[in-house]
Amino acid sequence: MPTLTKTDGVALYVQVRETLREQIKSGLFAPGQKLPSEDELSSQFGVSRMTVRQGISDLTDEGVLYRRRGIGTFVTQFHVERDHNKLTGFSDTAKAEGFEGKVQLLSREVVPAKLMVAKALALHETEPVIRIQTLRWANDVPVTVYDEYVPYKLCHELLQEDLRSRAAWEILETYGYTIKRAVQKIEARLADTDLATLLNLEENAPILYKHRIILAEDGAPVELILCYNRGDGYSVKMTLVR
Amino acid sequence: MPTLTKTDGVALYVQVRETLREQIKSGLFAPGQKLPSEDELSSQFGVSRMTVRQGISDLTDEGVLYRRRGIGTFVTQFHVERDHNKLTGFSDTAKAEGFEGKVQLLSREVVPAKLMVAKALALHETEPVIRIQTLRWANDVPVTVYDEYVPYKLCHELLQEDLRSRAAWEILETYGYTIKRAVQKIEARLADTDLATLLNLEENAPILYKHRIILAEDGAPVELILCYNRGDGYSVKMTLVR
DNA sequence: GCACTATATTTGTCTAGTCAAAATAAGTCT
DNA sequence: AGACTTATTTTGACTAGACAAATATAGTGC
Fold first, then answer.
1. Are residues A66 and B218, on separate chains, in Cβ contact within 8 Å?
2. Is B74 near chain A, with CB under 8 Å?
3. pLDDT band, very low/low/confident/very high, at B214 (cuts 50, 70, 90)
4. Which of B78, B212, B238 sits opposite A221 (nearest CB)?
5. Are residue B194 and residue B109 in the same domain, yes or no?
6. Percentage with pLDDT > 70 across chain A
7. Which nucleotides in chain D have some atom under 7 angstroms from a protein Cβ?
């Protein structure tokens, strides 16, 4: 059994969770297989049962394990990719999916908020917002047009920052804002002339449109992103829970 | 303070959670406001602090509350609708969204699994699957074409069941299968002639295409749904977590 | 063989504490 | 006034137990 350390600052339940995840990934616990009971694990790891439970709970939430009262804890059969519904940056996604990502800045300006933007960002109309338009490339193919809006009062430094590797909300994180979640709405649309030109498509080609609001820890909206993805070859993945 | 009952079979932490949710909804705790400390709540509710914490943790996972160590627990500012990423049936959705839903059965037959279907359902090619095609209406407008596949060996009774109110996976639940999650892929496409006719659209109108695999508790796929939504007026909502 | 019963196993819930870490507020010294 | 220290509050992590509920298993009686 692997030994846990009590002094390196990593919580014991996190060490338990990651140890189990590693053992599952390595095949020590195969899909469908029953794990040792919580009592057994707690004595093997040398921690209390509640600590083991916290680690296991994280993995059941992720869908790696499932529990059945009176029977035991099991590894789920088919490990579909599980990290959907995660808010990740473009460069991280590029790295994970294995393509070369490039961001081309189209424009950056301070403009008064349109009604739609003001509504999404809980501002008054005509309040100044920073608007950033970018074109994103994957392996030298233009895939997405980004139209981002951030309240000017939130972070005027955004006008100087380098935008080629990070989205605006990732920069906001470095200024002390804690980004916790985002809500987005997905629709199917058709490319207008401008979009078609930028994305190198024919007019009326299918476009996956995303309306995304980035929320800080306290639930306050910090950014609005309107996102136009070319329809061919692009898809959004998500998991639904009963 | 509301009294919790120890005998009605509802876990105390669930009662704490729902009491807090009700108090927040009623405005007793306003957005941005600080909740009483966990110690205080535990003495007010008459339960241990760990029990209070479990209730609060559920609400932070939902995004209703957020905690800051050393400071306190707070109500999030803007209550965006939170029940995204939930797997719900068509009639439940209709009820929640407030439209009249109707399901029209187009065809139901047993066919050998195509490669794509076999792959999604972890079957061998040509294994028999039940294919169900339906057209779904909202307020007498055709909005979605459903193309569902269920392994024949899983539940042949599906050939007799009434499909007008429930999706196949909802019927599987009544046969003892525990549905826990689904993974789906969303794309933007164009309507072909058949789809355009069914959905009363012009050809090449935008279509939101969903490829959804329903998974049982143990992670085994029990159903594949190919879903074609008309693009105008239809959108998928989801939340992303950092 | 079949229905029922007792027993052991395992997860779910809960308690009553402890200590640590982070943030705030008050007080103290220079 | 400003920097530093100290005490207080609050959440985070953890322990070592307890009992309940669900399931499986073995045994018993007919």
1. yes
2. yes
3. very high
4. B78
5. yes
6. 96
7. 9-18, 21-24
What is the reported pLDDT for B173?
Answer: 86
**Does residue B193 share a domain with residue B163?**
yes
The residue of chain B with its CA nearest to that of A74 is B218
In whole angstroms, C25 C1' to B71 CA is 12
Burial class (CB in 10 A: 0-12, 13-18, 19+), B109: exposed
A11 has a chain B CB within 8 A of its CB = no
> In chain B, how many domains are there?
2
Structural domain of B48: 12-75
Dihedral in degrees, nearest 10, Cα atoms B173, B175, B178, B183: -60
**Residue B2 placed within a domain:** no
Query: Considering the domain boundaries, does residue A22 fall inside one?
Result: yes
CA distance B184 to A152: 36
Do B140 and B213 belong together in one domain? yes
pLDDT tens digits, one per residue of A124-154: 988 999 999 999 998 989 999 999 999 998 8
Residue B70 CA, nucleotide C19 C1', distance (Å): 15
Same domain, A57 and A177: no
Domain for residue B197, yes or no?
A: yes
Position of tokens 């297989």? Answer: A33
**Do the Cβ atoms of A12 and A6 come closer than 8 Å?**
yes
Condensed to tens digits (0 to 9), the pLDDT of residues A47-92 reads 999 999 999 999 999 989 999 999 999 999 876 666 678 888 888 8
Query: Is residue A57 within a helix (H) or strand (E), and if so which, with residue range?
Result: helix A49-62
A47 in contact with chain B, both atoms CB, cutoff 8 A: no
